[in-house]
């Protein structure tokens, strides 16, 4: 089940990864307000009273233009303008470039319980960085039962019913120098259109369950080079018990896809039975995927070559019959 997240305004102050450099000036009660959109807005004409295109629940960025305009107004007019603006249910206000804040702005934010923060960053830099922060913090997320591996740089998600051997295949791949991202529970998130990333659940990250051995720590056993924190999911391999009555794809001409929180990821259904070296099959699948990314689709090229041979053979037979 997927969920679209929301965060409190206070999360902006707690950021350490995107270097937002925010400090709270006023409106501490407003830190409990929530954000559910990564879009940022500069008030612009809204300060003059034209609020038709002002969107509520967004971070409002006050740069040099906004602060300079406020300073052209009397204190009474500033209070009137800001009071009207803050009735639009804004998320918070951020002043950039460490500009000196008009006292009326501080007072009005405090009275409206609207968080007022400042940053030394330029407006353009702050907007770029806070949007990146919000896109990650608010991304749609879900959890999948499976194993995620980094095989030759390709993120491969192994799916299949419990006990089919996903963890054993993953362990074999780690022994071959590939990297484990997550075992059993894969937390997935859509970071940008057309891309979904997987990571290990924080509780069981770097651990793997092997029946007969119990829980093992891949990072401790094989070192930090055997694990990854997260990886883009580029290929899904669904493992199924071999069924002699079922017909499996033997050419691979038609591409299949699996929907993961709105992203279509290439899918292969692979039958499992004793004697099949599944780790080798997974590695070959990764190599084949890399070939496809370079424009070489082996199955389609083979099918086209076969069709040409059949057509040429039919033409020779037709010409032979005409000569006779």
CATH fold label of the largest domain: Rossmann fold
CATH class of the largest domain: Alpha Beta
% residues in beta strands: 25-35%
Task: Tell me the CATH architecture of the largest domain.
Answer: 3-Layer(aba) Sandwich
Number of strands: 18
Instruction: Give the uncertain stretches in residue-range form.
Output: none
Mean pLDDT: 89
The value of Rg in angstroms is 29 Å
Residues in helix, %: 25-40%
Indicate how many domains the architecture comprises. Answer: 3
Number of helices: 9
Q: Based on CA inertia axes, which overall geometry fits?
A: elongated
CATH homologous superfamily of the largest domain?
A: P-loop containing nucleotide triphosphate hydrolases
Structural class: alpha/beta
- How do the SSEs run, as a string of H and E? EEHEEEEHHEHEHEEHEEEEHEEEEHH
Determine the N-to-C terminus distance: 69 Å
Largest sheet: 9 strands, mixed
Concise overview:
With 324 residues, the protein is of the alpha/beta class. 33% of the residues lie in helices and 29% in strands.
Describe this structure in words.
With 324 residues, this protein is α/β, with parallel strands linked by helices. It has 3 domains: 135 residues, 3-Layer(aba) Sandwich (Udp-n-acetylmuramoylalanyl-d-glutamate--2,6- Diaminopimelate Ligase, Chain: A, domain 1); 153 residues, Rossmann fold (3-Layer(aba) Sandwich); 31 residues. 33% of the residues lie in helices and 29% in strands. The strands form 4 sheets. Strands 1, 9, 10, 11, 12, 15, 16, 17 and 18 form a 9-stranded mixed beta sheet that branches. It has a 5-stranded mixed beta sheet with strand order 3-8-7-6-5. A hairpin with a 3-residue loop joins strand 13 and strand 14. Helix 3 packs parallel to helix 4 and helix 6 packs across helix 8. 30% of the residues are buried. The mean pLDDT is 89.
